[in-house]
Write a structure and sequence with these properties.
This protein is α+β, with helices and mostly antiparallel strands. The protein is built from 22 helices and 28 strands. It has three domains: 163 residues, Penicillin-binding protein 2a (Domain 2) (Alpha-Beta Complex), CATH 3.90.1310; 317 residues, 3-Layer(aba) Sandwich (Beta-lactamase), CATH 3.40.710; 56 residues, Trypsin Inhibitor V, Chain A.
Length: 673
């Protein structure tokens, strides 16, 4: 008999075996299809991403910082430069003993061991030991022979002139970004463009090779050339430091400006600081007070009040004002003079610096015209020096009589030192206000000029005749009887004005017993080449500008005239003759008696020096017809230059001036109305 049960069992096993094979085949086919699809996806759609990941295993993009552009003075002397120095880094994972290595590294680079250990302990593969290290520190670290050390070049800002001009140039931070001064104002131009390049690295991340060489010009910022003169800047800073020390003051400012162009030749501040080591400086010494801070200028403003009144014909050079013998009551207030005075002309007002008579001149001028005149001279508007934080000052409208009086002698208003110097530059430049500027040119490495400043005439403030009249009046300030005889020079005529201003007390909302002493002058007075302003903040030995600031002016002016090769032109009278302008004058009995003999004529007649060979004195041709004046000048071996027609109303150089033969004499002619 056949065993049917045994015969059916193999057939069932074969069927299940075939099914299992089919299932496994389908599974493997699915897995193969999935792998193929994944491969296609990665190779086709993720190709760029994977290539980048692969390259990142051995290629690194390295940032190459740009070399910061240089800053020069007007003669090409570098004030700020960038040099390549070593920065030290380490791979902490390669150090056998991190704490021991931290102590050794800290000692070599003069850092706190705990700080170095903390930084190395937090990092895995990279940590800075010290950036921009000194050469001797780099040598000391290399001598340790520690594994994992690395050295890379970084640009470091260097200031070869140290403290000289530091407030103007400013400084940069450790990251190379400007923090103060021109370094901050011209950050974009100076910084240049950082470069990126590819470098290979090994499995531990160490750089092996950098691809290609970079053009150094592509990594360099633009060069900035200033109007500053290094020599005059040095002289100004030295004289200012002496003035501040002698007066036991807290600070000082000095400005030297070319009135013909508006160029700032020097801009000094005290106390000073070294931008190479700013952390060693005095607190608040970094601020550029001369360009940024506003203060109440005091009596230096009187010259502009007199000039505006003369321009508007509210007064004449022969007008007389009664100075109330030293005290003048205005409502509940009393205006005082340092010394009592009687009747004074405008020249006498400036010579003895009478607050009372300056207030009376402002009263004759009027509120609207006084404010307009101050604005015309450039006050209450920024000069545009391209320095961040420059103040504009303020000229509040004087609503009361006492406000009008105080603003006439520079209280109750504010100005910056540069504004004040530029305003005196307008008087020195025959009444034309020039825009003061500090940056001459900005040029990129390819020679393309990004910025170039030229002398810019802003506006005519007063007529040439009025400007010369006021400058002539200011000459009486520096002679005996004036407020600043210490500013007088042996070989040059000087015109200037002193200022002694009370400092406002913001807490008490009034004025304190602290003072700001100043002197603003121009030299030579007959054709000014330099306007020099010296300000001493809170002097303690003496508070008057004629004693505190005027000697510093003289020191700066003496060096400036020699440096600028200005020929001597001394034509002033003995001090006792010039002092007559400030002597009390009785009230005029009639219009005719009110006319005094011009002080200028008296000064010219008092000059009795013997001319040197090759020189000649300028004859007096004022009031003469143009033809007669030309004949007289030609006979004196001088070259006449005429402006206008009619009779001579002014001449430059003035009568009596000692000049070289063949010198040009400019005559201003006008037809009498």
């Amino acid at each position: 008999m056949r065993d049917f049960k045994g015969a059916r069992a193999p057939e069932s096993n074969a069927k299940w075996l075939k099914l299992r094979v089919q299932l496994l085949f389908g599974l493997f086919l699915t897995l193969l299809g999935t792998a193929f699809a994944r491969a296609v996806y990665l190779q086709v759609f993720q190709q760029e991403k994977l290539r980048g990941l692969a390259q990142d295993q051995y290629v690194r993009q390295i940032d190459i910082p740009a070399r910061r552009g240089d800053i020069f003075d007007r003669r090409g002397t570098p004030l700020a430069q960038s040099v390549e120095v070593d920065s030290i880094w380490v791979d902490p994972s390669l150090l056998p003993d991190v704490r021991q290595a931290s102590r050794l590294l800290a000692k070599a680079v003069h850092l706190d061991p705990n700080d170095v250990a903390s930084r190395l302990g937090r990092a895995k593969r990279f940590a800075w030991v010290k950036r921009q290290a000194k050469p001797q520190e780099v040598a000391a670290v290399k001598a340790l022979g520690l594994p994992g050390l690395g050295f890379t070049k970084e640009p470091k800002r260097f200031y070869p002139q140290r403290e000289l001009g530091a407030h103007i140039v400013g400084m940069v931070g450790r990251d190379g970004h400007g923090l103060e001064g021109l370094e901050l104002a011209f950050q974009d131009e100076l910084s240049g463009q950082n470069a990126r390049t590819s470098g290979f690295r090994d499995a531990k991340g160490r750089k092996l090779m950098v691809q290609g060489a970079l053009d150094p010009l592509e990594r360099q910022g633009a060069a900035v050339t200033l109007t500053l003169d290094r020599h005059l800047q040095y002289v100004a800073e030295k004289a200012l430091a002496k003035a501040v020390d002698d007066a036991k003051a807290i600070a000082g400012m000095a400005v030297v400006l070319d009135p013909r162009t508006g160029e700032l030749l020097a801009l000094a501040n005290n106390p000073r600081f070294n931008p190479n080591t700013p952390e060693d400086g005095v607190k608040n010494a970094i601020r550029n007070r001369a360009a940024l801070d506003a203060f109440e200028p005091g009596s230096t403003m009187k010259a502009f009040v007199v000039a505006a009144a003369l321009e508007q014909k509210n007064i004449t050079p022969d007008s007389l004002f009664f100075c109330e013998n030293g005290a003048w009551r205005i409502g509940r207030h009393t205006v005082n003079d340092t010394h009592p005075h009687g009747w004074l002309t405008p020249e006498g007002i400036l010579q003895v610096s009478s607050n009372i008579c300056a207030a009376k001149v402002a009263e004759a001028l009027g509120r609207e015209k006084l404010v307009a005149a101050y604005h015309a001279f450039g006050f209450a508007e920024r000069t545009g020096l391209a320095l961040t934080g420059e103040s504009r000052g303020s000229i509040p409208f004087p609503k009361s009589d006492i406000s009008l009086a105080t603003q006439s002698f520079g209280q109750g208003m504010t100005s910056t030192a540069v504004q004040l110097a530029a305003a005196y530059g307008a008087l020195a430049n025959d009444g034309v206000l020039m825009r003061p500027y500090l940056v001459s040119r900005v040029v990129d490495p390819d020679g393309v000029v990004l910025l170039e400043n030229q002398p810019t005439e802003l506006r005519r403030v007063v007529s040439p005749r009025v400007a010369r009249q006021v400058v002539g009046m200011l000459e009486s300030v520096v002679v005996k009887g004036g407020t600043a005889p210490k500013a007088a020079m042996e070989d040059y005529r000087v015109a200037g004005k002193t200022g002694t201003a009370q400092k406002a007390d913001p807490v008490a909302r009034g004025y304190s017993d602290k003072r700001i002493a100043s002197f603003a002058g121009m030299v030579p007075a007959e054709a000014p080449r330099a306007v020099i302003l010296v300000i001493v903040d809170e002097p303690k030995t003496d508070v008057y500008g004629g004693n505190v600031a005027a000697p510093a002016f003289k020191e700066i002016a003496t060096a400036a005239m020699a440096h600028l090769a200005v020929p001597p032109s001394r034509t002033v009278a003995p001090a006792e003759v010039a002092a007559a302008a400030a002597s009390p004058v009785p009230p005029p009995a009639s219009k005719a008696s009110a006319k005094a003999v011009p002080v200028r004529a008296a000064l010219a007649e008092a000059v009795t020096e013997t001319p040197e060979p090759g020189t000649v004195r300028v004859p007096d041709v004022q009031g003469q017809a143009g033809r007669e004046a030309v004949v007289k000048l030609l006979a004196a071996a001088l070259e006449p230059q005429l402006q206008g027609s009619g009779r001579v109303v002014s001449q430059t150089p003035p009568a009596g001036a000692l000049v070289e033969k063949g010198a040009r004499v400019t005559l201003e002619l006008a037809t009498r109305q």
